Predict the 3D structure of the following.
Amino acid sequence: MAPRETVERSDDGPAAALRERLAAVADPSGFIPFDRFMETALYADGVGYYARSGGPLGPSGDFYTAPHVDPLFGESLARRLRSVRATLPRPERFRVVELGPGDGTLAASVITGLRPAEGIPPVDYVLVERSPGLRARAREHARASAERTGGSVEVADSLAALGPVQGAVIANEFLDAQPARRLQWSGHGWAELGVRLEGGRVVPAHAPVTEPVPGPPLPRADEPGTVVEVSPAAEAAVREIADHLAAGLCVLIDYGMDEPELLAAHPRGTLEAVRGHRSLPDPLEAPGQADLSAFVNFRRIRAAARAAGLVEVAFERQAEALGRWGFPVLLEEALRTAPSPAEAVRRRLAAKNLLFGFDRFQVLELAAAASAPALVISPGEEDRA
């Protein structure tokens, strides 16, 4: 086995600091399992991608999400949350907890869509974000919307800090950014994929699997070289949601597939590094300077949810969920009140992007067990909530 590499600090600042962090988390042979590498590259204090002072989100950043396309995305989700609020006792405090709110774009539109009606108090919105920089941006963005609607905005480092939640937990493109293990089929068994540091560079590596893979047994792949990605961190997040959602609904929105589909459609895995709205040819070429993500393995997420006591209410494509939440009604109103023909065209194009440009996105709705019977509703009921 190769010895652990010692990394000397050089003049390249954050990159050298990140290599030091990676060297510190390597095992005695110098091997770093991929989930440990991903955790460090994305979240290490001061040097990880999401810990940088700059903003990675939005048209001027490295990537954008559905809430950046048009506020109708968040306002449609708000309609679903209003139907959830209608099922819960009043005047109990109704909280919406958003995991990984990024720059607050989704929060702002959801808060707008949840503006209080007669006899219904404003909603308490809680932002749970690891990155101090993004947490500050999200709070500023969300509070501007809350000031117009009378709601409140809080921030928290973790869901566990909030205690029992009555209301909703939402997460958009949160699970895909949780550290993932990558395993490769040799023809006889699975090997752990990861990285090593060689000459100051991060290079691919593999090692025997030493830690058990939680959840359902790994499948047997058809072809050697097949890669499957699993995220114990994402599954742990679902268990934490189950522990704290006392009543109400969890809505998880992300790109991904069930495991058999992932193996068939992406036999070499789905790891992607994005910078400046472009995929990097080598996902390891710029650790700490590019977003890293992998498709969500929904087979394992759904199994973790069931095991934790959450009840699956819906699992469908994003376009189907938007239709069920009342997006067509909101779009029709937006077009009717558009201040100009040019704005109407812009809204139509944005709607087309939301419905067809995010075709790999799934929506998983999970209810607290006590709330499940009331939360399985037909499309028209959301309009009346």
